[in-house]
Amino acid sequence: MKTAAALVALAGVAAIATAQASVSGSTVLANWDTFGNSGNSADLPVSGTATGVIATVWTRGPGLGTSSAGNSFSSNNWDESQQGAASEDYFSVTLTADALYDLDVDTLYIGTRSSNTGPANLGIFSSVDGFSTALDTFFQSGTSFTNSGLNIDLTIAAGDSVEFRIIEIGNDQADGSGSTAGTGTFRLTDYVAGGTFFDIQFEGASTLIPTPGAVALAGVAGLAAARRRRNG
Questions:
Q1: Beta pairing, strands 65-66 & 72-76
Q2: Beta carbons of 190 and 87 less than 8 angstroms apart
């Protein structure tokens, strides 16, 4: 069920509560709504974040161009000669854990589509290892929409940031007839499950870290409770 979350862009960062429905029932850490987007906008604004999460807009790497495509964030000029960390052709987003929270990032739910000459094989990479190894991969077949629940399995410690990039792997175009063409396009869209549209979203857990004062207070309270039990 699609919610009417307001699009927010405050210096590229948003930290607002989100009512976006979760795909899996887990906590939505951050979400981005592509509905109504022209495709060729400079970025894709964040719609909402859970408490303890700071998220950026989605952006294109410096090697990509813009491409018009309704209800999406789109691109062209995918250059298969550059791979992994060396690639300048990618979609990028960053999650930061607030100073009082740890984030466990489990899954990225995302819809995607290539043109026939756009990229066929892509992966989700992270700055943790310098974008060298894909956390998970997905495949585009012709111009079909692809719905992916990409495995992330990363912990972001309080105050730390992790950048995620979607990068092409190899040089096959989506229709299988040759190498990826610069005129080929690739876009991000909302995720669809059972006929229901969901925002692009990272899911996982945001955990408040007890402060030393809170731990000490809990210790005192526990000690007082133990004394009451002994004296009761």
A1: antiparallel
A2: no
Please give the Cα distance from 181 to 117 (Å, whole number).
5
Structure tokens at 189: 């869209």
pLDDT digits (tens, 9 = 90+) for 189-200: 999 999 999 999
- Contacts of residue 216, defined as CB under 8 A and 6 or more positions apart, other chains included, come to none
Q: Which residues contact 25 (CB under 8 A, 6 or more apart)?
A: none
Locate 79 and state its tokens: 């250059």
CA 95/CA 144 separation, integer angstroms: 29
Closest CA to 88 of 121, 64, 59: 64
pTM (2 d.p.) = 0.84
Q: How many residues in total does the chain contain? A: 232
